[in-house]
Specification:
Helices cover 31% and strands 17% of the residues. With 159 residues, the chain is of the alpha+beta class.
Length: 159
């Protein structure tokens, strides 16, 4: 988890009215416990938890909002999470109304656009039902209706 995200939600500002509605106190307590037990890695800027997966702190929606870039056989899939709820936000340069830091959110949009300009990179919005239509052709037989395949498997490794 991004250090700024952890420190925000476990600190006094995370309990203030503008933000408290978004996080259950029990969940925040679980974060503290997991951290105390040494089962949480806090990172700043970026972190590679496994080969081919990079977490990038972008901020904006929340102080330590992170996205995940996952290497695929064709490039990468960027799981935008709440950095981009709906594709329209990025396409129209209009952030969500729920923002901790507007300047950081615009910087996150710029970073996502930069990533998207790289060959083979796909952006996956956090809440947009359009994800299902944008990636529908990549689904395979045997997948339940609510499961999509965002990236093709690497034909050499099968991953």
């Amino acid at each position: 988890m991004a250090r700024r995200e952890y420190e925000f939600w476990t600190g006094p500002l995370g309990r203030r009215g503008q933000f408290a509605w978004a996080a259950e106190s029990r969940d925040v307590g679980d974060l503290r416990r997991i951290h105390t037990e040494g089962r949480m890695t806090l990172f700043e800027a970026s972190y590679t938890p496994a080969p081919g997966i990079e977490l990038l702190e972008v901020g904006g929606h929340t102080p330590g909002q992170a996205i995940a870039a996952v290497a695929t056989g064709d490039g990468s899939a960027v799981i935008a999470s709440d950095a981009v709820h709906y594709y329209e936000e990025l396409e129209r340069d209009r952030p969500s109304a729920v923002v901790a830091d507007l300047r950081q959110m615009y910087r996150a949009f710029d970073q996502l656009r930069e990533l998207a300009s790289q060959a083979g990179t796909e952006i996956v919005a956090g809440h947009d039902p359009a994800v299902f239509s944008r990636f529908a052709s990549r689904g395979g037989s045997g997948y339940p209706r609510h499961v999509i395949r965002i990236a093709a498997l690497d034909r050499h490794t099968g991953q």
